[in-house]
Amino acid sequence: MDKKQVAHVLRDIGVLLELTGENPFKVRAYVNAARTIEMLEGDIETLVAAGDLRSVKGIGSALAEKITTLVTTGELPYYETLKQQVPPGLLDMLRIPGLGPKKISALYATLSISDIAELEYACKENRLVALKGFGRKTQERILQGLEHIRKFQGQFLAGVVLPTAEELRLQLSRSAAVADVQIAGSLRRRKELVKDIDLVASSQEPRAVMHSFVELPGVAEVVSSGDTKTSVVCTSGINADLRVVSPEQFPFALHHFTGSREHNTAMRQRAKSLGLKMNEYGLFRGQESVQADNEAELFAQLGLSYIPPELRENTGEIEAAARDELPVLVTRDDIQGAFHVHTTYSDGAADLQDMVAEAQKAGFAYIGVADHSRSASYAGGLSVDAVKRQHDEIAALNASQSEVYVFHGIESDILPDGSLDYPDDILALFDFVIASVHSHFSLTGRQATERLVTAMRHPSVTMLGHPTGRLLLGRAGYEPHMETLLEAAREFGVIMELNANPQRFDIDWRHLRSARDQGVLISINPDAHRREGLYDTYLGVGPARKGWLGPDSVFNSRPLEKVKAYFENKKRTQHRRR
To answer: N or C: which end of the chain has fewer CB within 10 A?
Structure first.
């Protein structure tokens, strides 16, 4: 087992203990151990083999023994015994936003509710209204949470699925029978959530390709297999479909299976208006096949400039392509640096030097450190003294090396009334300030909007972090009125964050085009809490492209000197506004 798998088991044990009413200190020990293991640097198998687990803070002898068993055998009898003591439906109930182990345990103890179906029935019968610790509002939130689960049932985070899809594509491309193979579907269009992986391959030997596909190490189960389509279940749990066509059909099949359905319908209508017929097998004028060696030629045959996959949602891309007015979209190569980087000063797993070293490996010219502010005590938020120590350390680091410039920032909590953490004289110490909400999520959309606009009005605010607070497949967020936020961003000169953590991708791509049209800058920020998190910046390029953003609209596509100049000008503006 790797450290992520071990952390998952430890976290599950903590939940199971809480569901069974175990001592809170014992519960917390497992939850804390899970976090500690997950954020360890290096390989846990090496640590276990060396017998060094006891040296890790928070890992006592009993925990060290269990972790060793997990890592060396892949199983833990204690965990299996606990699972047998708790109805499996209780664990399913944890998927409901806002419903934690304590409330689930209370529901089980008082109403014998042991699964989601029983819970929904009880809510519709108003049985939670008079229950201590619940009430009508809680009952309504549970029903909303159940609706949320249904809406996203069977979906996966695109950023998590993408490495699996890339690996399948890479492995399959090594088959001698494969001429070309590409990822298609919603994953190629960079939707934030996907239901499965779609692959399209070209070959003159489809059976050989299918045989290679089902034998790939990432395939756990074969659902169906044929000469043109095979469906499998990957070891990660997601389904993958492979379609094999001839090389002549490949551009048309790739376009068709990339979608979206709405885009394809509009494309067929355009083809029909030109006296052509279009489907997944080709483009035809009567019985004659119209040749296209790639997708660019396919679009050209319909009088269109090439439409990047991310834009294929029938939101005006075909009309823009007909006028040759599609934007030049931002690319991975345009990204120069990353803001919203956490370190061990707050809840990061790596210290400042390690994050700088990783940023250099990632190809960044600069990073913007933004640890949590003091109100975020749960995340080790920085005291005023810690802010000053970090300020001095960053200054010394910039003086000692020139490979990666470090901007000193803060992720300041937006308090319930819209004010910021720290007095103005402390906020003035930072090169930039990201204002974010981390508490009081139950406000109405209007209240949330007022809270955010109040914060954006503060002269020190440089960026608005994860503007809706959503967690994909977790919580919907606080639903502010986005057009009002964009107007405020334009008025006050605030950069909107596109949080590139695949659980967030917030601001949503559907609002990015409006931000671009209003001249609001977007910064693709990784919200990195560990070294590998820096690479999420590149994941964020997908939704940025989907939102029609070019490099001019992306703040961190600017070179270092221009970023410095922007911050210096912002400080001069702050001084005038105070």
So the answer is: C
| Rounded CA separation 548/553 (Å) | 10
* Total domains in the fold of the chain: 4
Residue 239: which H helix or E strand, with range?
strand 239-245
Element holding 101 (H helix, E strand): helix 101-111
On whether both 186 and 282 belong to a single domain, the answer is no
Terminal CA-to-CA distance of the chain, rounded, Å?
A: 55
Return the CA Rg of the chain.
26
Q: What are the tokens at 117? A: 């179906």
Q: Is residue 366 part of a domain?
A: no
Phi, psi of 523 (to 5 degrees): -115, 125
**How high is the pLDDT of residue 578?**
59
Q: What domain range is 498 assigned to?
A: 332-341+408-577
pLDDT tens for 315-337 read 999 999 999 999 999 999 999 99
Tell me the sheet residues that pair with 497. Answer: 523
With beta carbons less than 8 A apart as the criterion, state whether 250 and 298 touch.
no
At which of 295, 326, 357 does a domain end? 326
| Segments of the chain scoring below 50 in pLDDT | none
Residue 366: DSSP 8-state? E
Dump pLDDT digits (tens) for 444-471.
Answer: 899 999 999 999 999 999 999 999 999 8
pLDDT at 576: 65
pLDDT of residue 381: 94
Which residue type does 307 have?
I
Give me the pLDDT at residue 121, please: 85
182 and 273 assigned to the same domain: no
Last residue of a domain, one of 215, 246, 277: 246
Shared domain for 208 and 274, answered yes or no, is: no
CATH number of the domain to which 445 belongs:
3.20.20.140
CB 38 within 8 A of CB 5: no
Interatomic CA distance for residues 414 and 316, integer angstroms: 37
CB-based burial label for 269 (10 Å; 0-12, 13-18, 19+): exposed
**How high is the pLDDT of residue 575?**
66
- In the block, residue with structure tokens 């319930």: 416
For 536-557, the three-class secondary structure string (H helix, E strand, C coil) is HHHHCHHHHHHCCCCHHHEHHH
Residues 194, 155: contact at Cβ < 8 Å? yes
Whether residues 460 and 563 share a domain: the answer is: yes
Q: Is the pTM of this model over 0.70?
A: yes
Residues with Cβ within 8 Å of 364's Cβ and at least 6 positions away in sequence, in order, are 335, 336, 337, 338, 404, 534, 537
Residues 271 and 192 grouped into a single domain:
no
